[in-house]
Amino acid sequence: MRSAPAAGLLPLLLGLRLLLGAAAQYSSDLCNWKGSGLTHESHKKDVEQVYLRCSEGSIEWMYPTGALIVNLRPNTSPASYKHLTVCIKPFKDSAGANIYLEKTGELKLLVRDGDRSPSKVYCFGYDQGGLFIEATPQQDISRKITGFQYELMSKGVASDLHTVSAPCRPCSDTEVLLAVCTSDFVIRGSIQDVTNEAEEQESIIHVGVNKLYRQKSKVFQLTGESGNWRGQIKTLLECGVKPGDGDFLFTGRMHFGEARLGCAPRFKDFQRMYKEAKDKGLNPCEIGPD
């Protein structure tokens, strides 16, 4: 779906390949940018250039006026760019601007101002274009903040995270063994409780951890009262996860700061498949099965 920008803005966009927009008050590091459109009040069509070099971070644009061009330039070889996927997750109350994909002067609407889709994530190939954020006409911008988190990841990882059926389909033995080697977290644990969030179409699995093999972020932590390891993993509501007896091997990936469920066989099944693969010399990596 293509949507034209405000009249007169596209020629300015093309010229910005060589020119920088007017100065604005902002704070920025390699990963995050936070700025204000108030300095654009007398220049309604100013365009601000934003440059970020991390694989994840956030944009927060207060009082949006004019437009932003967000240049994501990760510290990787340009040859690898074609293998990258960009995902953005708008803040819950993000408002005041449309977000487009821009490539060679053409704009494709990605997120319309006013869309209210809790937890919705928008993904596109890095080579499909950059992000162009255009403020929409407002009677009062004093309460408007346009913002989102972003992540860059390999296309294979992005595909796994955003294939609707993937989290609900049982994994094959090969998929489980690969998940143990490549996941952001690998734990042995039990399901203590499940909280269903109908509005976001997600379930939160409250996990009691018996053994922590690996975690990329500190999602699973020691609790002060019991001294046990606990944490939360999210999955789709349609998967129908329920509390139950027995231990599982939980694997998955971190996505926008949250643990997302990947393969999760019963632990006794994992022990069987791991031993069989090890006896044949086919296990892709070593991990203590108990």
TrEMBL record:
Belongs to the meteorin family. This is Meteorin-like protein. Keywords: Disulfide bond, Hormone, Secreted, Signal. GO terms for cellular component: extracellular space. InterPro entries: Meteorin-like (IPR051998), TIMP-like_OB-fold (IPR008993). It is found in: Secreted. GO terms for biological process: energy homeostasis; fat cell differentiation; negative regulation of inflammatory response; response to cold; response to muscle activity. One of its GO terms (molecular function) is hormone activity. Residues 1-24 form the signal peptide.
